[in-house]
Specification:
The chain is of the alpha/beta class. The chain is built from 16 helices and 13 strands. α11 links the parallel β9 and β10.
Length: 398
């Protein structure tokens, strides 16, 4: 079967959860299907990324990315101006004539058997597509992320932006989920939301490459905890700030020797300044491989208050047989049991206490880590999940 996938970016390098999911499913499904991948790219900077994806695809189609660069004054001004418009900022920012023209051209030339939109915000491109099975891969319920953004901010401007974007994105989701043949959700919770809009949805969970993570070993540093994330998203930035400002000070009151490492790309300046307050906090920035940092930690922490879908960072920790302390939102969407395969806490004081308890109890660390690994191996291996998506594609095609 010939499948055309269009996306905001090519899923390489593997520096965020969305790319990790897309790449791992793509790599396995490409053994059976001819996959055409169309996405924005900046040339020649992204040439190596495109070459990597070309190893697995029948064809790759880069679209010259002329969008406003993020985190610039012009970008922030455009976000502010969107407060006075009716459509979500994502539609204005990501929907371009050049992308649409390339998409229509590839459909005409390649006659795909199925078209998959790899990000809900790009669904308006389906406006021009007819007589081809259409699928939306919903990595998150985007409107829920913005609702939580509003809930976890005290700034009136930020709360207003969060409320507006949540409302507009929910309108987009409610409309487009019903227009396509089916949606792919990453959790049963997300699937239920999509179906509550009157749409048809299947669940293909987020996963982990068990062999890649479980085969790695390294020396463990006593009293070290780690939070791995892509720090260019506001949900992970909020989680890191929450960890440093509200949880870590309570941890070191209980045990001053505990060291915290935050691993991930593009940490903003304010996060670096927060980390510099404590001599035992290390903020690495981008790293080529997160496994050494997970391997040396005694406990992995996931202090998220904003987010949707499911967190690959938890599955990576479980695959490396590490115990995890997470908030409920951090563990949301995973078939995981508090006290058995993970520890869940939503109160800063209890989160700190549970983390130190794990650091002090080797037997409990090993028990929770073992249960978590079995869950990841039997339920969340990418091989299993790629087979699920393959069945869905075969069901949906004409």
């Amino acid at each position: 079967m010939k499948v055309l996938i269009f996306d905001e970016w090519f899923p390489w390098p593997l520096d965020c959860g969305k790319k990790i999911r897309t790449y791992n499913l793509l790599r396995r499904l490409s053994k059976k299907h001819q996959i055409i991948y169309l996405a924005y790219a900046k040339m020649p900077e992204d040439q190596a990324d495109i070459e990597e994806i070309s190893k697995w695809c029948y064809k790759v189609v880069p679209v010259d990315d002329k969008r406003i660069k993020r985190s610039t004054l012009l970008f922030n001004l455009r976000v502010f101006m969107n407060m006075f418009e009716r459509v979500p900022f994502s539609t204005i920012y990501h929907i371009t004539d050049s992308f649409e023209q390339k998409l229509i051209e590839e459909i005409k030339n390649e006659a795909p058997d199925l078209i998959q939109c790899e990000w809900t915000n790009l669904a308006p491109y389906f406006n021009r597509i007819r007589n081809v099975p259409m699928v939306i891969s919903s990595h998150n319920i985007e409107s829920d992320i913005w609702k939580r953004f509003e809930e976890n901010n005290t700034s009136l401007l930020r709360k207003t932006i969060g409320r507006q974007q949540a409302r507009r994105l929910e309108q987009l989701e409610r409309f487009w989920y019903k227009q396509v043949d089916c949606c792919i959700a990453v959790s049963d919770l997300d699937r239920d939301v999509i179906e509550s809009y009157g749409a048809h949805a299947y669940t293909v969970e987020n996963g982990v490459d068990i062999d890649y993570y479980s085969d790695y070993s390294g020396r463990i540093n006593a009293r070290e905890i780690v939070f791995t994330a892509s720090f260019d998203t506001f949900s992970n930035q909020d989680g890191a700030e929450y960890l440093i400002e509200e949880i870590y000070p309570l941890i070191i009151l209980l045990d001053p020797s505990v060291r915290l490492t935050l691993v991930g790309k593009n940490p903003p300046k304010n996060l670096s300044e927060l980390a510099e307050r404590y001599p035992n906090i290390t903020l690495t920035g981008s790293v080529p491989d997160v496994r050494p940092y997970i391997a040396r930690a005694e406990v992995c922490v996931v202090p998220l208050r904003i987010g949707g879908g499911t967190r690959l960072k938890i599955l990576e920790a479980l695959a490396m047989k590490k115990p995890v302390v997470s908030t409920s939102i951090g563990a949301e969407g995973l078939d995981i049991e508090d006290g058995r395969s993970i520890v869940i806490s939503d109160d800063p004081q209890d989160f700190a206490r549970q983390t130190v308890l794990l650091l002090n109890d080797e037997e409990k660390r090993k028990r929770i880590a073992s249960e978590g690994y079995c869950l990841a191996e039997n339920r969340y291996d990418w091989k299993i999940l790629a087979d699920k998506l393959d069945v869905i594609w075969e069901t949906v095609k004409f």
